[in-house]
Amino acid sequence: MKKNRNLGSSGWIRLPQKLLVMNLKILFLVCIVNTVSANSFSQLKKLNVDFSGQEITRVLDFLTTQTGYEFVYRKGVLNTGEKVTLELKEATAEQVLDALLKSRGYDYEIVDQVVVIRKGAAVYAPEIPRHVRVLQGTVKDSGGRPLPGVTVRIKGTTLGVATDQNGGYRLELPADKEIRILFSFVGMQEQERVVRDQKVLDVILKEEIAEMEEVIVTGYSTRKVSEMTGAVQQFRGKDIVQSATGGNLMNALKGHTTGLQITGSDGTPGKDGALLLRGLGTFYGNDDGSGSSSTPLIVIDGVITDYTSISGVVSPSDIADITVLKDAASTAIYGSRAATGVIVVTTRKGIKDKMTVSLDVKMGISTPVFGGLKYMNSSELLEFGEMTLRNWWDTNENLREMYADRETFVQDTLGVLRNNFDLTKTTDWRDLAYRTGLSKDVAMSIRGGGDKMQYYFSYNYYDEKGTQVGYDLTRHLFKARMDFDITEFLSFGVNMNGTFQKSVSPYTGLVTMESIHPWISPYNEDGTLKYNMEAWSDMVMSAEALVNPLRDNAYNDLTELRNNLFGSFSGILKPFSWLTLSSTNTFTLINTNANEYLDSRTYSGNHSSNNVSNGTLKVDDGRSWSFLTSNILRLQHRFGEHSLGGLLGQEWYERHSRTSHVEMYDQLIAGERNVGGFAKQGRKNDAGVVPTGTESDAGSFSVFSEINYNYSGKYMASVSFRTDGSTNFGKDNRYGKFYSISGAWLVSSEKFMQKQKALSFLKWRLSYGTSGKEAGIDYLNYTLYAIGKDYEDYYREHPLYPSSYPAVINQLGNDQLTWETAYTFDLGMDMGFLNDRIRLNTDYYRRRNSDLIMSVATAAGIGVGAQYRNVGEMLNQGVELTLNTHTLKSIDFNWYTTFTFSYNKNKLTKLYDGYFVDGEGRTFYEGDNIDMLKKVKVDGVDKETGKPIYERVNEDGSIEYVNTLTAATSGNGELSYQDIGLKRAPYYGGFTNTFQYKNFELYVHMTYSFGYKAYSYLKTSYTDGTAWLYNNMYKVPSGLKIWKEPGDDADIPMVNSDPSYTQNLYGTTSFGYINSGHVRISKIRLAYNFPEKWLRQMRIQNLALSFTCDNVGVITSRNFIGADPENLGDWPAPRRYVFGLNFTF
Q1: How do residues 419-442 score in pLDDT, each as one tens digit?
Q2: Nearest of 438, 442, 392, 434 to residue 413 by alpha carbon
Q3: Residues 277 and 341: beta-carbon distance below 8 Å
Q4: How far apart are CA 96 and CA 102, in angstroms?
Q5: What is the DSSP string of 773-801?
Q6: Which residue, among 145, 152, 202, 142, has the nearest Cα to 172 in the 3D structure?
Q7: Is 515 helix (H, G, I), strand (E, B) or coil?
Q8: Are 113 and 16 contacting, i.e. CB atoms less than 8 angstroms apart?
Q9: What is the pLDDT of residue 581?
Q10: Could you give the CA distance from residue 473 to residue 642 in angstroms, rounded to a whole number?
Q11: Furthest CA-CA distance within the chain
Q12: Do 662 and 674 contact (CB within 8 A), yes or no?
């Protein structure tokens, strides 16, 4: 028979729990009209009991099997080894419980098939002190409801009482002492209070939620941590909302989740980093893995979605938890969309309690982070330019013949510049381009309900002014969820989520504002803004004026709107305790609009790509809607110590999307930024530009199942299977089949482990299975045609845009194309030491992604250069580790730590013809790492000539040192392109410390990444002697030295303004790639929670203040050059200071 199990470290012991079930299918309503309540049946059933000298837990197991009751009690309350003898015939369950428990000094209470066992009310000790005083009061829960049966006891004695039905108590105390009183109750945190001379003491007990065994929500099911057979990680909503700043929700998981890399975030308001789980497993998406094809599947409230991020979809304050599913045991049931992992988001819902209102306010300021990099002022840039001109004269014989004196050449060349600009003045363009950002984040929710209906309503307003002028974001999110319990066996719910987002970014054409020459001013002498600016480039005054971004950006911008609506209707039918039927029907609508507007009053509105166009407008509209219905049958059966559960489900999904693009010019009314405000369509200088658009449809049908087995809470096994059919494949390959098998052994529950004191928890996990992936592009199985020159004229029969161009093939279909498939093996171990004060979780994984879709060259006679085929395969393997400790533990002070570590290694194992060429033209072969950087190595600077030293690899493997890139690469194929490192960090993780002292909490979170290199445009920009002719440059960092004369030991080669002098040190060589390994202090947060005794008088449940500093600082290698190792060339993420207020009443 099944033994009682210790649930976590809370001190609770719980016999087999009732199955937590999900969602309904309305079709089965008629099945339960005459169903008898299982609860009533349990109470009326007659039992025959005959036990002799058996442990009391075996009797409880018997009652669970016969009645369905579950038994809950605090560790230490029940003597589980006590032998009992009990014989009853034709007895009710209550009669058996009275005979078993009350006769042995226990009390019990039955609440909805759950029996709560506790000690009988404490009695006074035989000896009562002669001099006593009386303490009285009431005990309530956090919702203000009285708690009957709470034990109120003098610490260190047996003196105590139990609270009455109204939560009241009256306790006699010694009159001449300071007394410590303990308040304890099943399901509540024990509380200790000091009593001196007061006569009344009211207490509020909090639920012991944090110490109960965690349950993991995997989308289709909910399971206990101890019963999980797969590799998953879960994060509570409270932790997420505290960590989410700057509107970047997914970034809150960075450094907390093993195997999940989040990269590429920058200063753009609300922008998330790219997500990659356990390495790149497809050829689709960007080279850095940031494409949507590499993003894990996102599931919200059990519903599969098309979202690539949850920022702007779900408010952080609405999240109950986020679960990351990594291995096949967890993801295979999601089938064709789970090859890159799954992120499951569960949102909050109503509760059966009185209404509570929560308000969370965060006000922040942000400052740009430049990493100590500064632009040159006018005199510094001029000095740099003069150096490049001198080197030009020194190395050019023709110039020496024309100018006998080097300085004469320099001054003569700069004459135009000096005559047109005051080089003693400097405009700080960076100061004009950046500002102190501001953010407001206000979230409010209303939650409550009763026995028949529970509700949850929320609204979140987020507004941010970015640190770069002109970048603004406004976001409105709302949620409405209502759940109705019609009967004990029938319920349904409605869940609606909506987002309305507007983002604005400046339009400056080809001008990068902060790098404009420092001697150029945007202002007239009277302080007004210039219409445009004179520019000097290539040593002459430019024929075309320069856009004044300060003036133009006051009118021009790119405004993007994104509106999401995500709604579902679900129902649950439970005709029997072992059977549940659910149906969830979801509709998703996404509307997007991008409006790029150049006003007719601005210079760029007339002189950019549309010369004298009198204002331009580009409008892109997108509309996508999808429908998903998910119907699931769930079964659960217990017999003895065996538990068998499973599900059988069916889903239908369809998606429709449309896009359109139109361009207009010749504005009729200044300020009107819609199509009706312009007179002409297209571009003034390109009559071939016409309105365009796309339309696509896709659908899929799925059947899936899962079986879970549990024996005695020690041995767990799980099997899942799913088949998906998709319209994106040919009829012979339309269906994909995916499966998983997994098991776990809870070693710490074995008898031979019971005497272990140090090792409190030990579990082994093993899983293997498959999951799939579509190509990420629709209609690859069809041959597609386009009509028009360069495939642009799609309107051959259009009355306004007739075409005489013939139809041509622009995609050769492949009806043999099939699913990409991931085969994943995972071995995991979970350990707990010292009553789980130390917790260690480790995983080793090996994932083989097969049948990868690649673009393959076709025979010339076909007329199309390439076709998509299933020809690739790659392998990812790695190790993950999470270490949690409760380092110091006391009543007033606690210290918690979390350390995460991830390692991933990639290898290409199968390619078409054994190789493929990446976007940079480099050839990768079987056995290579897809993250490998193949570059020509540069071994420093020649001290005598100032030229870079390149490595040439000859066919015999020998190394030859040459002074030009051409000499290094000519005649030897790609031999000189060597492995210089990886572009993605193979080692990454985080380290978190949380310190709690009374009502204060200090949280410090750090992340790290090691073992990779990133390209620094800053370093290579100094090698281009003509770059300063067109824009400003950064000051040369103190760690770099530019070669100036023979004998110099320099880091940067000679810089020469000669246009014919090229060094080619950009992306094709190793010169610009630097070690970007780093440790980042990501977040420091200080919070104060006001004492409950202060708040009770104001009827406030919770009140907290916090201050957070985000992106505090970064520690890099000594030779690192750049503003930020995670964003070397663009706009790094800012440093944020956020003040928070949270209260609930």
Answers
A1: 999 999 999 999 999 999 999 999
A2: 392
A3: yes
A4: 10
A5: E--SSTTTTS-EEEESGGG----TT-SSS
A6: 152
A7: helix
A8: no
A9: 95
A10: 55
A11: 122
A12: no
| Residue carrying structure tokens 């139809």 | 807
**Rounded CA separation 201/194 (Å):** 10
**Element (DSSP H or E) covering residue 1074:** strand 1073-1075
- Does 208 score more than 70 pLDDT? no
- State the CB neighbour count (10 A cutoff) for residue 811: 17
Encode pLDDT of 766-818 as tens digits: 999 998 887 656 667 667 666 544 444 443 344 444 444 456 676 777 778 88
* Surface-to-core class of residue 639, CB atoms within 10 Å of its CB (0-12 exposed, 13-18 middle, 19+ buried): exposed
Token pair of 938 as six digits: 């540069």
Q: Considering Cα of 215, then 724, then 309, then 445, what sign does the dihedral take?
A: negative
Query: Do 1023 and 907 contact (CB within 8 A), yes or no?
Result: no
Under DSSP, is residue 49 helix (H, G, I), strand (E, B) or coil? strand
Cα-Cα-Cα-Cα dihedral sign, residues 8, 9, 10, 14: positive
- Is the confidence at residue 712, as pLDDT, over 70? yes
956: exposed, middle or buried (Cβ count in 10 Å: 0-12, 13-18, 19+) = exposed
Distance between CA atoms of residues 593 and 603, nearest Å: 25
Angle at 452 between CA 446 and CA 456, to 5 degrees: 15
List, in sequence order, every beta strand (DSSP E) within 32-131.
Answer: 47-55, 70-74, 83-91, 106-111, 114-119
For the chain, the 3-state helix, strand and coil shares in percent, each to the nearest 5, are 15, 50, 40
Distances (CA, A) of 644 to 12, 710, 714: 24, 6, 14
Instruction: Give the orientation angle of helix 56-67 with respect to helix 93-100, to 10 degrees.
Output: 170
Residue 389 has φ and ψ, to the nearest 5°, of -70, -40
More confident residue, 455 or 224: 455
User: In angstroms, rounded to a whole number, what is the distance separating the alpha carbons of residues 843 and 420?
Assistant: 67
Tell me the C-alpha distance between 655 and 589, whole Å: 10
Other C-beta atoms within 10 Å of 648: how many?
Answer: 14
Q: Which among 370, 340, 288 has a CA at the least distance from the CA of 1012?
A: 288
Which among 63, 61, 62 is positioned nearest to 43, based on CA atoms? 63
Asked if 822 and 771 touch (Cβ cutoff 8 Å), the reply is: yes
Q: How far apart are CA 84 and CA 57, in angstroms?
A: 10
Give the sign of the dihedral formed by CA 59, CA 61, CA 62, CA 64.
positive
The runs of H, that is alpha helices, within 28-92 are 38-44, 56-67
Among 376, 366, 302, 380, residue whose Cα is nearest residue 334: 302
Q: Long-range contacts made by residues 1095-1100, C-beta under 8 angstroms, separation at least 24?
A: 1096/202, 1096/204, 1098/1145, 1099/1145, 1100/1143, 1100/1144, 1100/1145
Q: How many residues does the chain have?
A: 1145
Q: Is the pTM of this model over 0.90?
A: no
- What gap in Å lies between CA 753 and CA 747, rounded to an integer? 7
What is the DSSP track for 1099-1126?
Answer: T-SEEEEEEEEEEEEEEE-TT--SS-TT
Given a cut of 70, is residue 292 above it in pLDDT?
no
Among 508-512, 655-659, 782-786, 1003-1007, whose mean pLDDT is lowest? Answer: 508-512
- Of 341, 324, 344, nearest to 276 by C-alpha is 341
What SS3 class is residue 749? helix
Name the one residue in this structure whose structure tokens are 């309540």. Answer: 37
Rounded CA-CA distance 116/14 in Å is: 10
Q: How far is CA 775 from the centre of its chain?
A: 23
What's the token pair of residue 187?
A: 């399901």
The reported pLDDT for the residue numbered 65 is: 77
DSSP 529: B
